[in-house]
Fold each of these.
Amino acid sequence: IIAVLDFGSQYTQVIARRIRECNVYSKIYPFGVSTAELKKDGVQGIILSGGPSSVLLPKSPRPDPKIFELGVPVLGICYGLQLIGHLLGGKVEKSRQREFGKGTLKIRKKGKLLAGLPASLQVWNSHGDRVIELPKGFEAIASTENSDVAVVQDAKRQIYGMQFHPEVVHSERGIEIIRNFLTRICGCKGDWQMSDYVETAVQAIREQVGDKRVILGLSGGVDSSVAAALIHKAIGKQLTCVFVDNGLLRKGEREKVERIFREHFKINLKVAKSGSRFLKKLKGVTDPERKRKIIGREFVKVFDEEVTKIGQVDFLAQGTLYPDVIESVAIGGNPAALIKSHHNVGGLPKRMKLKLLEPLRELFKDEVRALGEELGLSKEMVWRHPFPGPGLGVRVIGEIKSSYLKILREADAILLEEMKRTGYYEKVWQAFCVFLPVQTVGVMGDERTYDYVIAVRVVESQDAMTADWAHIPHDILQTISSRIINEVKGVNRVVLDISSKPPSTIEWE
Ligand code: XMP
């Protein structure tokens, strides 16, 4: 196990993730963790993260000074390096300004840390303070344009430090430096796997929850599904999942969730069939943001009622991922301080005094998918496209009517079926239909029709911030179009959305 001491860097979790990528188990500790605890956990190496503070400030975060005498290797990154310089008798100087950006690392001496790397590398720098005088026993083994002490080592005591961030993707071959530290210096074997993570997470959940009861809002999306499967593995019947059918779901969605979670996993699952309630509240409403607000508010009410019915509950579980956490952290803030609560259950935990259980908080999306598969969720489930909380409510343009929803559901099911059949589902970010409340003239058989329009939206994206329309082959589009028009009553026209984001958005509302 490798200990990552968190000095408040935005990248602490990224360091932990890189360590997992090297098949080594890591645990993040608060910076002030005692050497006794580290010893008890059997750590093989310690990484000191970066951080927004300056070691020159008297109140800046410091580790237990005894960590340098534990006899396990230490690697300081950025602020971590400055700590090493400052605490072990070197000299750190304040730079006039903080500078971020790419730099070229020139390696003078490789040692174990830089073994196997070329003499020159692009690295991502963050130079705030600088070490200008090395502590006794240390030598600088690489430099950048701005600093002679970009990488330092005391090979005898196995203490290492670097000014740049090897964990970020902009640092070329940074992961090899981390791997060198783990395997060549700390002697880690590199045989840790996601299945080992399941065990650790299960233990941690059991410890946190004890004999208390946990509630989880299951949406059927990847994150809440993986969280449900994991928590259920840990505490079984102490977990109750609540699935709110708001009447705005895709075709067969509720049945699918019931099949997987109730029948297959044998999870306590409460299903609140409340479609008519939502529709009533949405009657006559056309403004997209008002629709969202109404759907969100009604969700909280329904969820709240279900929780009340269950009785005593102590924890609210959420499938919050690391990217959700980082999104809500002010730059330079403490990552632990702020939690982005799932927009759908905002306001709930406070009043009910529920404690939060967020077992996926340290993981990235791809890791959550791997974890899901490890837990026995199908590939189909863990590779699902994102689906917005307000669901089809923002895909029926303007006022929502149940007759429109019915048409949209059928058309959407055909689109998804064809995307999956042709292998395009996995290649694109999202694929869905939009119902346009516009009637146009058509001819079917010998008869004139006056029916609605379905728009097909298929986009490619990395993170939903920008997106481009996917170039689906014409023959596939042809099948989709003719199937929708032939099979869905009420539709006589299908159009393709060929707008990118920006300036459009992915959803139409
Ligand atoms: P836009 O339409 O803004 O969508 O380009 C970006 C991503 O966010 C999803 N989306 C939502 N998700 N509640 C959600 O949970 C919403 O109200 C919402 N609106 C958009 C959208 O599907 C896409 O993945």
Amino acid sequence: MVLAQLGGSISRAIQQMSNATIIDEKVLNECLNEITRALLQSDVQFKLVRDMQTNIKKIVNLDDLAAGHNKRRIIQQAIFNELCKILDPGKPSFTPKKGKTSVVMFVGLQGSGKTTTCTKYAYYHQKKGWKPALVCADTFRAGAFDQLKQNATKAKIPFYGSYTESDPVKIAVEGVERFKKENCDLIIVDTSGRHKQEAALFEEMRQVSEATKPDLVIFVMDSSIGQAAFDQAQAFKQSVAVGAVIVTKMDGHAKGGGALSAVAATKSPVIFIGTGEHMDEFEVFDVKPFVSRLLGMGDLSGFMDKIHEVVPMDQQPELLQKLSEGNFTLRIMYEQFQNILKMGPIGQVFSMLPGFSAELMPKGREKESQAKIKRYMTMMDSMTNEELDSSNPKLMNESRIMRIARGSGRQVREVMEMLEEYKRLAKIWSKMKGLKIPKKGEMSALSRNMNA
Ligand code: GDP
């Protein structure tokens, strides 16, 4: 994801500062200038960036920090807080309740990813036990109904639409009525877009909204417009009661940071981000875990959420227990590889852990990553139980490595590479030691994780 580059630049700046023998004003300024440059490149508004810099300098008064203070940590925390402030809209979004019918209406310009996002949103909730349904009230774009139908069929989500009816209000009302009768608890209405903001689009949005009385209106926008997102989000908000925003195409555009901060400035909460064309390339957006991940500090709550989503129920308690013990064996690595291979787009779980993302499973190279994981697993198949269950790196001596290479038909070099990977993962895993495992959505452990 392009945001990873922004995160990389910021964490590098912090790292460089940490490497300095003495953190004085010059070092701090260099770090802040580097961060400023990265944020401006990501199209974050100049004023926001300048204010951030001023605030950090105010908080981090180097003269007042006694020698014993951990300046690095204080500065890092200040940067974290200020980035969160830039992205925080200051108000939460309405969240539909499971088991109680909610109507959610999607609005946005044509091409923003609205139809794709409707299905992603439905699919996300379906996986969490909801009963969603999709209504296509987009009668403006030829092929919109076919697209929604295709996506919905793939995800096995009921849908409603018409090839002949041209009145979007009529379709929306009929669809909502039908799915209410069928006891669907999340009825999603996809509305028409236009190439640009125009009176006809806003009038149609207003009419569909009046007729269906949505509990939540979600505005979908493409992140490539960067800080221009402010004006777009304001314009939509003025026409219809936008309660939440989903920012799409965060995988491909350098301006994603600008778009997110601009939306926050309109006081509209961003609830999800789209990170690819596939149905599950869709992530909950929560400011603190997002910034934490951006800075390479990991996103423990996202990690937990993914564990709950992809690790089979019966294996969850055991895995969480092992996680809190911090003891990472090759067998745990093997089991996690099995989960990763099962869950489709690789790397979603582990990318949430500090320092984990790019190396093992870089985005866009999923096939190669999968092949690598399979290769590692073949080598582990040639290991003894003692080797798999030990967390003592010294056990893997030369003769054992040669035996594993022979047994799996691989080169010694490859076995050593796999063991290096194991050591790297074990180091990250060990940071989880003693961690209070949060329940779904709980953030309590995050700050502890950040300070580790
Ligand atoms: P609509 O006109 O707003 O309904 O837009 P569509 O849902 O038809 O999407 C327009 C294009 O954007 C399609 O090719 C989608 O596959 C693509 N798209 C949607 N969301 C994302 C995303 O998060 N990432 C990427 N890379 N492409 C996306």
Amino acid sequence: MSQYVARPNNLEAFWMPFTANRQFKQTPRMFVAAKDMHYTTDDGRQVLDGTAGLWCCNAGHGRPKIVEAVQKQVGELDYAPAFQLGHPKVFELASALVEITPPGMNHAFFTNSGSESVETALKMAIAYHRVKGEGSRTRLIGRERGYHGVNFGGISVGGIVSNRKMFGTLLGGVDHLPHTHDIERNAFTRGLPEHGAELAEDLERIVALHDASTIAAVIVEPMAGSTGVLMPPVGYLKRLREICDKHGILLIFDEVITGFGRLGGAFSSDAFGVVPDIMTTAKGLTSGVIPMGAVFVRDDIHDAFMTGPEHLIEFFHGYTYSGNPVACAAALGTLETYREEELLTRATELAPYWEDALHSLKGLPHVIDIRNYGLIGAIELEPIAGEPTKRAFTAFLKAFEKNLLIRTTGDIIALSPPLIISKAQIDELFDVLKDVLRTLD
Ligand code: PXG
Ligand code: PLP
């Protein structure tokens, strides 16, 4: 087949991220093009994107406003130094973004990824307490099963064992809340699980152990994505917010997945009603087209830094590519697409249909839980005894053969299609997945 020549003849040099390299290189899976809801493989197949790439292509693929914005920008101003210099688009973008952040959260710091957004937020939290005269507040509290990217701060507050165990002692002064996953009590819940709000009380135990005066921030994903789509129990986030307020601890929501429409609003607070002090984002900010992240902070946190002599740098932090012009253009084109097509609220509209279609998989072999919110869903499979992850990975391979892209983590299948998915495509997605699940050993 003619497309086949697109496959490079040497796959050795590229060390692939989070990939079984040797297995992949024996039987490579390659995409060569993408448009709207579909990828094209190098053997000419159209694959339905059930995962928005890696939870990032929220506007779908090859969207004209984004493509045009990037093409125009790269010819006009390719790069401008990020430190002590600016360019118009980065200010325009920050202003546009704070229009959709929660009230009182009107400042944006740009990064290149979710991992960098997390490092930035953790450093901001510690430095904020210091500029406020509370330099003893350095401790960071994460949560078991949390995913906050792969840099040292992020894996330290994160709670995914395989991402941590190889890398030494990590950051000191970190503690963890318990995760909220409880299949025994909450299996097959539609929307937010009823049981588990009391798990937030564990923060009081941690505060009692370390004393509030040593704690800078709590960081959680409002909905934990990477670990297998764990919804917050009803009342849980509100309780975390109350305990943080009581003790002067900053609450950071890692919205790298939940931001930009996944839950049916711009950010998780639109869905769950709890507003953090700092939000980390990336992915949907540019619909995955150009790497970019943003950290949003409450005004008084930003303002606390804006003291001292005006010629001095207020925050010793930033990246060569913070606010890169081409990334800014991609983000502005993305926001325009979201606005014109009302994509940031589309998940709310589609949620009932999505939920019914997803839960129709109940009763299929090995399915032990199904969960959903907005345009996100997960199907948890019983692991094969002694061979965890194998059953779900087999489902991934079979789905790929049947022209459907799904994502698996452990024995959990995660689904998060682009927000432009049609009802007919939702039907197609679950028809294929049913076929796949029926044939699993
Ligand atoms: N925080 C959260 C909550 C994330 O989900 C990151 C930080 C890190 O972002 P970067 O851009 O540095 O990767 C993430 C990223 C998966 C999967 O399939 C999830 C992520 C990335 C890749 C795959 O679960 N989440
Ligand atoms: N390492 C070296 C030697 C550098 O000079 C720089 C940036 O100037 C970095 C790392 C950080 O790179 P970035 O700003 O792209 O994160």
